[in-house]
Design a protein that fits this description.
The chain is α/β, with parallel strands linked by helices and about 230 residues long. The chain has 9 helices and 9 strands. The chain has helices spanning about 15-25, 45-50, 65-75, 95-100, 125-130, 135-140, 155-160, 170-180, 210-230; strands spanning about 1-10, 30-35, 55-60, 80-85, 90, 105-115, 120-125, 150-155, 185-195. The chain starts with a strand and ends with a helix.
């Protein structure tokens, strides 16, 4: 069983297109969990209008993106968990390619096309744009774990939850938990259109504007969380 976990917040412009690209790849026993963080636009009405028993809309009232992702993950029932953003598009082979890769790994990160708001490709490879590091020690310093391109099994989920407080971002935490406790693979298949429109919750495709002190704080919090995970 697959659980797709999709956090939403004021995503009315793109959410229907994304949901449709996901549902067409799921079986009858899979689920799409949408956790809404207090949207004030038409996002929830759009979701409710889709009459599909695989959809589970839950609420996470205005607690922020990390908490919203955690809320979705806490409700996941599947053996395999896929993370999704609300404004991207899944390519038709995303699920099949990911499940094949997960037969030999606990967590996979696929590459993706970077697009503008109209899905015109502005970057042929996120891996190249981000200079993604496949070595876990290098990736610990320079984040290479893009949540919307990640899929993992329940053993990773069990180790990653609950999230420690003050982690820099959910995908950084999950990726590093998997890297240091499980088997992680980067696959070069591009499986989504990663849409950049200026209002994305994630800024992974843009240069970081965090100052040195903030980056040190983020990494320190991450180190402490990983150490606690190993000794618990």
């Amino acid at each position: 069983m697959i659980s797709v976990c999709l956090p939403t917040y004021n995503g009315e412009k793109y959410i229907l297109q994304q949901i449709e690209s996901i549902l067409i790849q799921l079986s009858d026993i899979d689920e799409l969990i949408l956790s809404d963080d207090g949207s004030t636009d038409n996002t929830c009405n759009i979701i409710k209008a889709i009459k599909d028993i695989r959809i589970n809309l839950i609420t996470n009232p205005t607690n922020g993106v990390i908490s919203n992702v955690e809320n979705a993950l806490m409700n996941a029932k599947g053996d395999f968990i896929f993370l999704s953003d609300q404004d991207d598009i899944w390519l038709p082979n995303k699920v099949s390619v990911s499940l094949t890769a997960l037969t030999n790994s606990d967590l996979i990160i696929s590459d993706c096309y970077i697009t503008d708001k109209d899905l015109n490709i502005i970057g042929e490879s996120f891996f190249k744009r981000n200079n993604s590091k496949r070595n876990k020690w290098k990736a610990l310093i320079r984040n290479s774990y893009l949540g919307c391109c990640m899929a993992f099994n329940r053993s990773v989920l069990n180790d990653a939850l609950p999230f420690p407080t003050d982690i820099p971002m959910h995908d950084i935490w999950i990726g590093n938990v998997a890297a240091f406790r499980h088997k992680v693979s980067f696959i070069d298949d591009k499986l989504i259109y990663y849409r950049r429109h200026g209002y994305n919750a994630s800024t992974a495709a843009e240069p970081s504007n965090a100052n040195i002190l903030s980056q040190i704080k983020f990494r320190t919090t991450l180190f402490i969380g990983l150490i606690k995970l190993f000794i618990k």
